[in-house]
Design goal:
mainly alpha; two-stranded antiparallel ribbon; 67% helix; 2% strand; transmembrane; Battenin_disease_Cln3; transmembrane helix; MFS_trans_sf
């Protein structure tokens, strides 16, 4: 009797263990729901972060075409007057290039000082942060995380193995930071070239790619250029789960070829229709978005835990540097081309 009672008790304990074991972690459905909530939250955060900046860039041509009416103290001119521009040039130029407004709005949105950026920050972003994103659960230092860490290839082959341990000090010496930054140059330089080429096109050439044999006005053509570029960027930045690109240099070369081709068309006017330009600009946006998202994805995979945060922050100078350099070159080029008959 005692043996049968003991075996029955063991079976009861086993059955209880089987029932309670799955409760030690969230059900699969809850984990999948949290995954998709996080994916949607980060996607919306990226969208909100760029939205105001993109709208202001798209309006750069209209901003330069209008001036504040006399005596009007409001931020919005109810009846704007057209600003003087050069009708003698075949490009129908504004008095200044669209590069200055683009560079200025870019700087105001690094610092979140522009009202449009503040509106975005005060509206959608906190909603995504507090209501969509889920708090990470404590994870076992072993298992999948340890295997993933071991599979990462460091950017510098001279790293000591102990530096990748999660309990290592996050403080980096100047020598370490310089070593990490040198390892990042294979990504930083191509991304600088990509941003230089595409913003040279966007803020320096879009206004000059003016077609008179179309029903679209000059301002409408500029808006379509900006919209198609941003559509290409949107698609390619959202495509990381579909394909990864390792060689960012190839994207930089293709973007520089886009710049050379469109600059040649500005000077020689050999493209017969604006729709050819539409296709090239959409392609330009695809290249730019793919270069950006794959650069940071590759850096995240190839740096150790100790160096990853610094590496991601250091690589962020690429887009700002490329945009600033493009503005410096686009301004004198705009003035030179607009003086041509």
């Amino acid at each position: 009797m005692s043996g049968s009672a003991g075996s029955r008790q063991r079976r009861l304990l086993d059955s209880e263990g089987e029932e309670t074991a799955p409760e030690s972690r969230p059900p699969l459905r809850d984990r999948q729901g949290a995954h998709w909530k996080n994916a949607m939250g980060f996607w919306l955060l990226g969208l909100c972060n760029n939205f105001s900046y993109v709208v202001m860039l798209s309006a750069a041509h209209d901003i330069l075409r209008h001036q504040r009416a006399p005596g009007n103290q409001s931020l919005v001119d109810p009846d704007p007057l057209p600003a003087p521009h050069s009708n003698s040039s075949r490009f129908d130029c504004n008095s200044i290039s669209t590069a200055p407004p683009g560079s200025r709005q870019r700087g105001l949105c690094g610092w979140k000082l522009h009202p449009g950026c503040l509106f975005s920050l005060g509206g959608d972003e906190p909603v995504c942060y507090f209501f969509l994103l889920t708090s990470p659960e404590p994870q076992d230092p072993g298992g999948e995380e340890e295997a993933e860490r071991a599979a990462r290839q460091p950017l510098m082959s001279s790293e000591a193995p102990e530096e990748s341990k999660p309990d290592a000090s996050p403080t980096l010496s100047l020598q370490e930071r310089w070593t990490v930054f040198k390892g990042l140059l294979c990504y930083v330089i191509p991304l600088v070239l990509v941003y230089f080429a595409e913003y040279f096109i966007n803020q320096g050439l879009f206004e000059l790619l003016f077609f008179r044999n179309t029903s679209l006005s000059h301002a409408q053509q500029y808006r379509w250029y900006q919209m198609l570029y941003q559509a290409g960027v949107f698609v390619s930045r959202s495509s990381l789960r579909c394909f990864h690109i390792r060689f960012i240099w190839a994207l930089a070369l293709l973007q520089c070829l886009n710049l050379a081709f469109l600059l040649a068309d500005v000077v020689l006017s050999f493209l017969p229709s604006i729709y050819f330009v539409f296709l090239i600009i959409l392609y330009e946006g695809l290249l730019g978005g793919a270069a950006y998202v794959n650069t940071f994805h590759n850096i995240a995979l190839e740096t150790s835990d100790r160096h990853r945060e610094f590496a991601m922050a250091a690589a962020c100078v690429s887009d700002t540097l490329g945009i600033s350099l493009s503005g410096l070159v686009a301004l004198p080029l705009h003035n030179f081309l607009c003086r041509l008959s």
